[in-house]
Each structure stands twice: as C-alpha cells, then as structure tokens.
Amino acid sequence: MTPVSNQLFFIGTYTQPILFGTGEVMQGRGEGVYLVEMDGESGWLRAKALFSGIANPSYLALSPNGRYLYTTNELKDETGLDGGLVSAYAVDAGEPTLRHLSTKPTEGADPCHVVVSPQGRHIIVSNYMSGSVCVYPVLADGSLGEECQLVQHSGSGPNPGRQGGPHAHSAVFDPDGKFLLVSDLGIDQVFVYRLDGNTGRLCPVHIYRTQPGAGPRYCEFHPTLPICYLINELASSISALDYNLQTGCLTHRQTLSTLPQGDNGMNNICADLHITSDGKYVYGSNRGRDSIAIFRLDERGWMNLVGQVSSGGRTPRNFVIAPGERFLIVANQDSDNLVTFRIDKKTGSLKKQAEFVLPSPVCVRPIIKREE
Fold first, then answer.
1. Domains in the chain, ordered, with CATH?
2. How far out from the chain centre does Cα 344 lie?
3. CB within 8 A of 10, min separation 6: which ones?
4. Phi, then psi, of 334 in degrees rounded to 5
5. How confident is the model at residue 189 (pLDDT cuts 50, 70, 90)?
6. Which of 30, 186, 206, 322 could make an SS bond with 167 (beta carbons 3.0 to 4.6 A apart)?
7. Could you give the CA distance from residue 88 to residue 140 in angstroms, rounded to a whole number?
C-alpha cells in the first residue's frame, strides 16, 4: 500500500479580546497564524511554525495557485476608524513561510470572512458587525490594490439580540464562478451577485429570504447537483436550496435541524458546514452542544440526519475535511484545541483520532500544492 503523505495547514486564531454579536467578550489567546502538520496515516498533529504579530487573523483564504494567503484582521478599530483590516501574504515555497505584502482597511467592523475569486483577480471581505461587503483587486505580486466597491446591506431581523442590523457573514462563489452568494445573518437574506472580472464591481441579481430569525451564515454547493446547502446559525439548521446555474436564483427544498429530535436549540448556535467530494455526506458544527452533525445525502441531494458526535472541545468554530478526505479537523475555539476525526466513508461517521493544543483556533486552511 502506498504511504499517505503528511499534510500542512494554516491555523487562524484570535489574538486580542473581541466582542461577539452574542454579547460575549472573548480573550483571544493566540499569537498569530500557526503552521501545523498532520500525519497522513494516523491523523496526529504537530506544530511546525508560528507567524506572530498578526492581529486577530480569524479567517484565512489561499489564492487558487497557492502562492498567496489572505487573512481578515477581525477588529473594530483601526487608528481610530470604525473598521477592520485584510492582509495579503506571500506563501514562500519550501518550508512554507509567510511574507507580508499589504494591508488594507475593510471599510467596516469585524471582517469575519474572505474569499478569493476563482481567477485569483479579486478578494471579497464580509464585514460582520457593519453588514457590508468590500471588494479589492489582487495585483500581479499578490498584494491588494485600492478598493473596487463597498456594498452596504440594510435592515434588521426578528431576533433583537442578534439581528438589530445587517451582519454579512460569508461570500461563496458558485461552481461556475459566475455568481457570488453573500449570507447575511442579521436580515435573514442570501444576496446573489455577479462579479465583474474587469472592474471588480458587484451587480445584484437575486435575493433569497430564509425563515425569519434563521440567521443564515455560510453555504456550500453539492459537487454534482445544482443544490446549495446553507447553515443557519440562529435556527440550528441546514437548508437545501435548489440552485439555477443560469440565473443564480435559489428556491427552498428542505430544512433539517442539526440537533437531536426534541432538542429545542436553546443556547446553541451553528457555525460551519462542509460536504464530501462524492456528495454523500454533509457536516455542520453546533456551538453550545459542541458537536458535529452528520447528514447522509441521497442520490437526489435530500438530507437525512445520521446523528451527532462530540467535537472534542468547546465551541467548534471552523472545521475542514482534509485533502484525501480520510480526516476531518475541528477548531474548538474556547477549549484551545484542534481535534482530528477519521471519516468512515461507508457511513459518514466520525471517530476521534488525535487532539492538539493550540490557543483560540478559529480557522483551519489546508495548504494547497503550489503552481509556479
């Protein structure tokens, strides 16, 4: 049997105190972006490097060619301005190291998500607290140019504690790279935009409205079917949405709870969602119940809840299905640990394999093979 090679991951952390939308203040204990290696056979993790001095790098995105890393700096203030930052780094070859290229203000507060366009020509940042989306061009050296556009959402939702205003939480490209879906937790809407690849400007084409109070957070697409799966933070649920690849329109198909039958979801909120490349399973994280929900997908993309497994810590924020899909790695924000689970490809079940101590982990990003 051919040995499975080891894999490298960048880990984003909270390094400073931060006030969440829930009203909780977290004392970030991280020191920057960490480099971690996973044994490809056992799933065990070990530290490789620390890139310190990066403030609250809470979300990370790699360019399609793997040569550049973009990090949100989830901050409320930047030299007295009400806004966070986004930073660009070159990922130097060999033993990966980060070299700072540029930092830009995101023109909003608490940037919590960044995505690179499929062509690698633009990045899109979601500002959670101020409910806006900012677009920047990527220059030839991977650094960021001047802002192309700031799109400000407006409105509110029925949950007074969490939906007093718009809260853009993520931006995700569709499978063709034609449309961009922005989930706004504060106003229960998913905006569909077309990105102009030349100007970097967003043109609205559709708005999908969730159930009031659902709090849409993040979505992913089925690998072969025109279905989008949306995790709803406040409702502790996942919705399957039929997707029109030509128009970008979304229509509701199915919604299931991420919790056991009879659990009303009090004191639980969802976070992340990912789908296996064979389209057989979708996973979602529960914060409060501190678990990973497992759904089996049938050949038409309908969800069936298999069950839940403990995340192995507190507040599973982000997780990733590792390349090769033998393992799933969870970042447990409030218990300072990463936990590796082995994926049973026949049942979708997860078995804990390893645990690694790392302060305030909030994002796990596999390092992709570089294209020179």
1. 7-265 (2.130.10.10)
2. 23
3. 33, 34, 35, 36, 60, 62, 69, 363, 364, 365, 367
4. -95, -5
5. very high
6. 186
7. 12
